[in-house]
Amino acid sequence: MVLTRFAYRPLLRRSSHLLVGQCILRWPVLLGMVILPLLASFPGWPHRFSLALPPLAGPVGCLMLAYACWLFWRSQLDVLSGNAQRKPWPGGVYQRIRHPLYAALWLAALAQFLLVQDGLAGSGGVLALLFSYGRSVRREEGLLLQWLGDAYRQYMQHTGRLWPRGLAR
């Protein structure tokens, strides 16, 4: 997902509109989802945090991570496409989910826990998101409400924040 963000860098520089998720890809998420798992892969990492998860945890984690990467990529593509200048929600995944980038990060954090199978490094992504998610979403939605007003309020009524509205019913 970090590589996807770098791939879109030229478009991000040219873009003048509010980018979804521009606040969350910062140090806590980088530390918890990239640096901590990398450190855990080196010899000498304390094994006292190791977890014995069921054998299906790995394949389920791979599927979750693949979907998270697709959702992250698609959210960035939808925002940075030419449609974003014509209307606030260009379609795609934004037709059903207000914050697919955050949904992708949560899925990736859960996948990290299943794949790393270490209590400290595996939960680093979840802990980082717990620390920064609420603040980032409130700030972002506040900016969108200021920018778009009632149109965004109406959009909020028809979409779920992290998963499609009505999916959990």
From TrEMBL:
Its EC number is 2.1.1.100. The keyword Transmembrane applies. The chain crosses the membrane at residues 19-39, 51-73. GO terms for biological process: methylation. This is Farnesyl cysteine carboxyl-methyltransferase. Keywords: Membrane, Methyltransferase, Transferase, Transmembrane, Transmembrane helix. It comes from Aquitalea magnusonii. One of its GO terms (molecular function) is protein C-terminal S-isoprenylcysteine carboxyl O-methyltransferase activity. It comes from the Bacteria. It is an enzyme of class 2 (transferase).
